[in-house]
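Researcher: Please predict.
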Amino acid sequence: DKTAVTVDGCVLSEFDIKVSPHDNDQNQWYLGARPLNGLKIGSLNGSYLAGTSYCNFRNTKIGGMIGGYGIYAEHCLGNNFFSGGVEFCNKGAVIASTSNYTRFFGFNLEEDVIIDVEDAGKGTEFHGVDTQKAFLIGAASLMIGGNHDKVDVASASSNVTLNGIKFAKGMGANGLTLGSSTAIARDCVDQRT
């Protein structure tokens, strides 16, 4: 499927992944072989029982997946992303509905073509994460801090909490939309004022 790195069925593992044309002297893909997608996290057989669980991804750097995604997480549980970022992809990070409790800490998700984050997972957490384009939030998600242009909480989402985020940072579409009646926004700052 033209994905640069696939992690399936790993448990309690550590990863330092870089998929970018900007990590070599020529500032290009090796032999011009651009992957369509960056990192896919999943399971060996499509079930939670063989899913990638409680792994740490440190200083992840993914860029230039035009036409695909930077990170795609499905059938996984409790994985953590510490520092790093995803830029210049069609979609930055896609968290599927089969992904539970994925967490991002101090992560940068900007300059993606369609969307920086598409979160349909359960219990996804974003701590000090910066985004630019529309940010879609799934079920029981938590966002604490970070700078964002536009944050959209989908009407189909449930029990989403936004705490101390800054939005409308001025790089594109601006605003905060709480489409769900169960969404809670506390101490959020509109940077236009």
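Model: DSSP finds no helices and 23 strands in the chain.
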